[in-house]
Amino acid sequence: MSCCFLDLFAVQLLLECLIKGSSKKIITKEEWEKKLNDVKIRKEDMNKLVMNFLVTEGYVDAAEKFRKESGTEPDIDLATITDRMAVKKAVQCGNVEDAIEKVNDLNPEILDTNPQLFFHLQQQRLIELIRNGKVAEALEFAQEELAPRGEENDILQQSFLEELERTVSLLAFEDVNNCPVAELLDISQRLKTASEVNAAILTSQSHEKDPKLPSLLKMLIWAQNQLDEKAAYPRINDISTATLEDPGV
Questions:
Q1: CA distance linking residue 140 with residue 5, whole number of Å
Q2: Could you tell me which of 89, 114, 83 has the C-alpha nearest to residue 200?
Q3: Is the dihedral of CA 176, 177, 179, 182 positive or negative?
Q4: Does residue 228 surpass a pLDDT of 70?
Q5: pLDDT digits (tens, 9 = 90+) for 2-46
Q6: What is the pLDDT of residue 157?
Q7: DSSP state of 244
C-alpha cells in the first residue's frame, strides 16, 4: 500500500521537473530511489485513507479490525455502516419497500429532501412488480404513486415522467428481454439504484459519498502515462521479488 502512494507522489514530483523538458530523460535506479526517499508520507495519513475506503465501501468488520490494530478512528459510528449496508442489500435483492423503511428508520429527511432518489426507489418498486408479472398491480402503482410526480411543469418532474413512460413501456412487450428498455430489468439497474441510496445516506452522515483511494489510484495511472512519455525509469518487472530494475537505454 505505502509503495503505491510513494510511487504516486514521486511520479508527481518527477513530472514537475520532466514536463518542462523536450527530450526523453533516463532516470537511474539511484535517482529514482532518492526521489522516493525524499517523499515523506505520514503513516497516520495512510491509515486514514484505508479507513475512509473501508467505511465508504461498507466493510464494517474490516473497519472494526483495522481500528483496533491501527488505532485509526473512523469519522462515523461503525454501527451505521451495518444499517447502510442493509439498505443497499435490500435494493440489490429487489426488496425496495423494505429498503425505504430502513432508510426512514435511519433518517426520514433523506427521502423527504431528495425527491429524485425517492422517485428512483419507487421506479425500482415498479420494475420489480413488472419483473414478477404483477401487471395490474404495476399499472395501479404507476398511476397512483408515480404519475402525479410527473405532472408539474418543471425540468425535474418532466424527467420523472419520461422515466416513468420508459418503465411502463416494459408492459407493452411479450418478450421483455428483447425490448428497447430491457436494461431496466437487468441487475445493473438495481445496483445503480442501490449506489444512489448508499451515496445519499453517506451524504446525510456528512461523509464523502465516494472513497478517496480509487481517485488517487486513477491519478497515479494518469501520472505514470505522462511520465512514460517524458522518461525511462526503473520498474518492477518481477512481482515476486519486487526489485526495481534500471531502465533500458
A1: 54
A2: 114
A3: positive
A4: yes
A5: 445 445 555 555 555 554 555 677 777 777 777 777 767 788 888
A6: 74
A7: E
> Helix, strand, or coil here: 249?
coil
Rounded alpha-carbon distances, angstroms, from residue 242 to 4, 69, 94, 237, 238 = 12, 26, 45, 8, 6
Query: Taking Cα atoms as reference points, which of 86, 39, 80 lies closest to residue 63?
Result: 80
Cell of 172: 407493452
| Average pLDDT for 190-197 | 95
Collapse the DSSP code of 245 into the 3-class scheme (helix H, G, I; strand E, B; otherwise coil) and give the result: strand
b/e burial code for range 4-36 (CB count within 10 A of at least 16 → b): ebbbbbbbeebbeebeeeeeeeebeeeebeebb
pLDDT at 62: 92
The size of the chain, in residues, is 249
Distance, in Å, from the CA atom of 18 to the CA atom of 28, rounded to the nearest integer, reads 14
Given this model, what pLDDT does residue 65 score? 93
Return the residue matching grid coordinates 490494530. Answer: 69
Domain ranges of the chain: 82-204
**Within 13 Å, how many C-alpha atoms sit on residue 107's CB side?**
17
Rounded CA-CA distance 142/160 in Å is 12
Contact indicator for 212, 53 with CB cutoff of 8 Å: yes
